Amino acid sequence: MRELFKYPVVQAARTAASYQLLSQEALHAMGIAHVQRTLEQQQFEILFHSEALQRYPHLKAYREGERLWWVIVESSMYPQTPSLGSDVARQLLLHAKSEDAKVFYAPVMFINTKNQNLGLPSRNGQFTALFNGFIPIGRT
User: Fold this and answer.
1) Is residue 40 part of a domain?
2) Are 62 and 44 a contacting pair, CB within 8 Å?
């Protein structure tokens, strides 16, 4: 008697819906933590830290002999690029005068290096931060 051919058991691929995804707030907190580490490596002292998405600046940093820095952090997942709204920049420049502070923008893009979907913000991911430095915001 012939044995019937058996199809191999195929495990269904995991979809994005089956992952626990990071919230926008958690992604933002990762961006702030990365920028804060970068500032500390550059010998800045962090005077103020806020992870609130709509509270600006997110960081205030100071280094001996320099003016105070106000830093706005925007985080995104690959391939979206963070972008700063011109209205936020204008408001921040207006308020930074009160502390004689320089205003900088810190865009951070994350790539999920643990998953084939590089833009998947899964909680169990391993992320690489793409950060090209601080962009000075000035009057235009």
Assistant:
1) yes
2) yes
